[in-house]
Structure formats: C-alpha cells, structure tokens
Amino acid sequence: MKLEAVELIRLNVPLKSAFRTSFSSVNMHEVVWAHAVTDVGEGWAECGANDRPDYSSEYHTGAMAVLREFMLPDLFKLNNDLTAESVAPTLEWIKGHRMAKAAIETSLLDAQLRSTNTSFASYLGATKDRVPAGVSVGIMDSLDELMEYVHSYLDQGYMRIKLKIEPGWDYDPVKLVRETFGPDLLLQVDANTAYTRNDFDLLKRLDEFNLLLIEQPINEEDMLGHAKLADYIETPVCLDETIISADIARDAIELGAAEIINIKPSRVGGYLESKKIHDVSVAAGIPVWCGGMLETGIGRAANLALAAMPGFTLPGDTSASSRYFETDTTEPFVLVDGHITVPTGPGIGVDPIPEIVDRYAVSREWIKA
Ligand code: NPG
Description:
By secondary structure, the protein is of the alpha/beta class. 36% of the residues lie in helices and 21% in strands.
C-alpha cells in the first residue's frame, strides 16, 4: 500500500474518576491518535504515550514530533512498497520512541487488514472469542474508599483485582482486600518501579497474601535487581516497564528476572513485536497477560485481539469502557460474565464515532506525503 497522509489527533477524554499510580494522578486521558490514510483505505491507532514522560521516557507531544519529523517522511518514501510489516525495519535506525512507532505501525496494520477483510484477532492467531477481564485499582485516599471500589468492581463481575501500590500504600491495603474477599480472589499488585533494592524485606511481607504476581517493583533498568528479588520472595515477579522488546524479554527470562510478563503493545513498539514476546514467553513456559494504558475503544479493541492469543493465560487490564469513561470514543466494550468479547470485524473491528472525536479533540494536524 501507499501512505498518503496521516492525521495526528490530540484528545482529552475525561475519566470517570481520578486514576492514581505511584507516578501520577490523572482525571483526563490525554492521548494522541494516528489516523492513516492510504491508497487501500484508512486505519486508526491510539498512541500509548502519556502527556508527561512519567511512565516511560515518551510523552505525547514528543511522539507527535518524532512522527512528524522522522518517521512519516521515511514511510512516505516507501511509496507502494509500504506494508505494516515493513514499518519496523524502515524505522529501525530511530532509537527508542517505541510508542510512536507502535502508533503508526498499528494504524497501517488496521488499514491493511481492513482492506483484506481480516480481523486483528485472526491476523495474530487468536484462539478465544472472549477474554477474562481484570481491573486495575488506583491508589486511594483511604482504605474505606478502596474497599468501595473493589466491592463495586467485584459486583460487576471483574475476575481479578490489581492494586496499585507504593511505599506507604502496600501491606495494609493488600491485607484488607485479601481478608475481606478471601483466599479465592485473584489478586495482584503493581508498583510501577516505586521500590528499590533496599525494600526487599518489605516486599517479602506481601508473600503471606498469596498474590498472583508483583508487577515491576523496582527501576525498569535494574534487571539484575529483579532477578535477585525473584529469588528472595515467593510472589512471582512480573515485568512491565523493563520489557521493551522480544530480545529484552528473552534476557529477562533467562536471568530469572521475569517469572511472568505484562505485554503492552505500545510499550514494545507494536503488535508484531508483542507477538514475538508472546512466542518467546510461551517457548520458555512464562505466562503473559495484556496490560492497559487507559485506552479508549480504538486502543482497547486491538488489545483484546492480542489478549485472545493462546499464551495469555492470566486476566488482563482489559476492562470494560465503563471502568474508565462515561462516553467511549467507539461503541463501548461491555463486561459479560467477567469477560469482554474480542472484535471480529475487519482490522481493529471498531470505528471512532465522529461526534465524540470532535467533542474530545483538542488539536488535529494533517501531515501529507
Ligand atoms: O486498565 O488501562 C487500564 C489501566 C491499567 O494500571 C494500568 N495501567 O502501569 O500498567 C500501568 C498503568 C498505566 C496507565 C501505565 C497509564 C501507563 C499509562
């Protein structure tokens, strides 16, 4: 196919309630979309970069700049030789910027698959038509407030709870949730790098709660530290921020730093790299699950297809639209019996609703070949 133009859209999508992690508290999902126009049709993708470089080094105006200045000019030059599969090799010389790369690759994969009437799910080799949904619960102002949210999510049918933790909000909330909801609740925690190598004894105290996993406890660059922690505690160590490619995943597994892996397509440069991480993990007997970055329907749709691959054996952070938004940017994804249905239509299988995109868009910029 040939890339004719790309529209970069910045949207501010209000969240139903503040989402607090160890790195930020947000009321608004501030996000960038790539809308690709090709000679075979159009495609859509949501870029994972936050508005500030707080989860990773990327941030949304930086992602827009590198797309505008370096990535799109190279892709325009490919003319008719462009395929979704050729994006990563063409942009390989550009160091990092994986979220920007994922956005353009995914929008082109969407266009390509729509043009051949193929869904993301069948392209990726998905084997399920619905996936179990977990929910990520932010850090709260009080334990009472936390309990209200956890109660409500369990009443709605979510199949696993992930608690965000940080120093000062760890042992007590986890203990309360475990004691209140009992030993059968699938429960895990996520620190987003908030601890250090000096906190291993504190983290070991969480062993008594029989957690599914502890996600990214220490600095993302400290792979050896994670391996040492994995030896020291019983709770399986799961890596998120550290795993930026299939090569890094292979190394983390070999070193014993990753007993479980969270795959977020944005973080690793797209769905093609995600599939490689899935394959590396399955070959090594390491379970994977699909993370989330508060995506609207455009990003969520493709994540659901990924989460339907066979190696995704743990519930993901792929919650229903109503977990995040009063009004999603696509037809909402709904929770049925604790599961979300995997889209089967061409490409990502959903379309943005123009009036809603207009309502949330704060800027729209066309970049033409
Ligand atoms: O359900 O989409 C969701 C949120 C899941 O906790 C979640 N995401 O660290 O994994 C994370 C966190 C996140 C959110 C990361 C936004 C980056 C941006």
